[in-house]
Amino acid sequence: MSAEATNPEARPDARPELRRRGRTRLDLRRLGRAALLGPTSRDRLPDAIGHVAEAHRAHHPDADLSLLRRAYVLAESSHRGQMRKSGEPYITHPLAVTLILAELGAETTTLTASLLHDTVEDTEVTLDQVRAEFGDEVCFIVDGVTKVEKIDYGAAAEPETFRKMLVATGNDVRVMSIKLADRLHNMRTLGVMRPEKQARIAKVTRDVLIPLAERLGVQALKSELEDLVFAILHPEEYEHTRALIAAHAGERDPLPAIAESVRAVLREAGIAAEVVVRPRHFVSVHRIALKRGELRGSDFGRILVLVGENADCYAVLGELHTCFTPVVSEFKDFIAAPKFNLYQSLHTAVATPEGYVAEVIVRTRQMHRVAEAGVVALGNPYTTVPAAEAAPDCDEERVDPTRPGWLSRLLDWQQSAPDPDTFWSVLRAELAQDREITVFRADGGTLGLPAGASCIDAAYAQHGEAAHGCIGARVNGRLTSLSSRLSDGDTVQLLLAQDASSGPAADWLEHARTPAARIAIGSWLQAHPDTVKPAATPARAALSVVGARGGGGNAVADLPDATVRLAGCCTPVPPDAVAGFVVRGGAVTVHRIHCAAVAQMRALGRTSVAVHWRATADCRVTLLAESFGRPHLLADLTEAIAREGVEVVSATVEPPVEQRVRHTYTLQLPDATGLPVLMRAMRDVPGVYDVRRA
After folding, report:
1. Quick check: is 121 catalytic?
2. Annotated catalytic residue: which of 17, 64, 88, 122?
């Protein structure tokens, strides 16, 4: 947890807000061997659990500490004689991990499992013993954190361990909470390892653990992990950033004065708020330096304003923007639109008369707990609701508020990953996508997808392997290609072929972003290699039916004895506004006034010829119809056209592409006013999803 965060006193009779103010602040980064061992020697640790108990009672005054003491006794006795590579007794590691979680506010079950998290892996203690002594929940969490045997999995042990851990996290998110705290303490003590091993562990932490900490909202752990990885993988940039922070420490910091001005403004407005300055961690300073170049004093920290209620957040924002000059581009409202990792706050920046720009974060105290500790701050999401309090229509399945959409997607696609290498590489790619969008299905449901997802991703998210037969989509009511990218809030309707043997095209992989879609498409293409590269046979000619009539219909050009032709590119009909142009041979070609060819002719300096329509109502028009492929479709369409009393001048049916068929009809209508009725009749033919003029 960050240095400025506070924790309640252990006195059960004290009010929560007084306990928060009264207790000495603890900095997780400075808790080392001395804090754990106290004045005792390495061989004797009778008081070590006291630090954990004190931190736990600060968040949970009524917690039963007997369970923790029993877990500590088992952990200490089973690890007795084992030493860490740093030379410390091994028990210092589970104690440190448990203390990290206690400071974040984890409940008793999590801390109990944390004390025991290495016993099954490194000692003679069995899962059955843990279950008998501490219950099923603790046993499940310990099993979830326990690594798989390297002797059984070889080089695949690390990917399979993470797969096992993520599956367990899907059932109980506390598994990952312990893993993150475990990795944080290991990273703190990584200096005793060889440089190459340090780099390997740091890279896995960067690619997998830090993104997981971000997605679970555990910012306190994520920030320190980022700094530790930064120091190992980028030592030169780290030293430069450390020098910048050290130089700033000797200069006058403008942020305390700005914070005092904010306090005065809020005090005068009658808003009860706590205002503190939060120093940036190393990676944050490095990013700001890359973004802004030369740093000023106000760039090394941010101002945090804590209030009681959501409405107070907006009241604070109003006062800040009234009494200071706001930087509009820096405003973000994560209260109305929370991040997918539970994070809520208002972000803004204000300029002072002295020319400093200070970033300000406004949140409630509950939001602050969740922002720092993420899912750890939610307590035990699996507490059973008494039957008397349960809703009468509530089923017995427990609802997990900590299992977000990205985790559900991850658990779905990992089952289809064919081998550990695929799982490992796809997992890293999935975790690298740090933003989500929500799209609405045609049936009213929603889909959570990573930013940049296409209609292909939506198809596999909604239909699974049935999406192999997807042939198109409508986004916000408009027909679009499957490769189209979706935006937050879009409504998508997916069109599936009736042919069960349909399969995805090879180029779908270029547009699929989600692992579930990529794995499913790749598996289908491997199982059907003959469909990846079609045989080099001549393309099948389009089927054409041509009638006997032609000419310019009832269009008349103001040019004596000129032959008039209706342009095939836009097929004008009465009462369209039209223009004519003389072409080779002296004929006049008639276009709709908004046709692209008209603009091209005029750009070339061609003079248009006036054209008008005869009083007769008949006309000629070209229509394009798009449909799913099925037997007897051409017959049904021509029958629908004939029922409207329309003559087919010519018809072309292109070969099917991905189960979609395109028809082009040139039609002679007895009355131009009947065109809308004709187009509706064609759309009503089963399988036809679009009819439009050419």
Report:
1. yes
2. 122
Here the tokens at position 578 are 């039209």
Stretch (H or E) spanning 34: helix 33-37
Mean pLDDT across the stretch 488-502?
77
Cα separation, 655 vs 658, in Å, equals: 10
Token reading at 22: 């009264």
SS3 assignment, position 564: strand
Which of the listed ranges 29-33, 313-317, 607-611 does the model predict with the highest average pLDDT? 313-317
Q: Among 27-31, 498-502, 590-594, which stretch is predicted with the lowest mean pLDDT?
A: 27-31
* Cβ atoms of residues 165 and 144 within 8 Å: yes
CA neighbor of 601 nearest in space, from 611, 590, 612: 590
Alpha-carbon span 92 to 465, nearest angstrom: 49
Instruction: Kindly report the average pLDDT of the chain as a whole number.
Output: 79
Q: For residue 306, which phi and psi values (nearest 5 degrees)?
A: -110, 130
CA distance 513 to 424: 16
Nearest one of 326, 349, 320, 344 to 334, comparing CA atoms: 344
Question: Cα separation of 9 and 533, whole Å?
Answer: 70
pTM exceeds cut of 0.70: no
pLDDT score, position 530:
64
Which residue, chain included where needed, has tokens 């030293």? 239
Asked whether 440 and 489 are in contact (CB, 8 A), the reply is yes
User: Which of 54, 88, 121, 618 does the annotation list as catalytic?
Assistant: 121
* DSSP-assigned letters across all residues of 603-642: HTTPPPB-EEE-S---EEEEEEEEEE--TTHHHHHHHHHH
The residue among 674 and 369 whose pLDDT is bigger is 369
User: What pLDDT does residue 133 have?
Assistant: 92
User: Residue 122 catalytic?
Assistant: yes
At residue 235, what is the residue type? Answer: P
Is beta strand 588-592 parallel, antiparallel or unpaired with respect to 619-628?
A: unpaired
Nearest to 211 by CA among 423, 493, 434, 436: 434
- Please check whether residue 259 is in contact with residue 275, taking contact to mean a CB–CB distance below 8 angstroms: yes
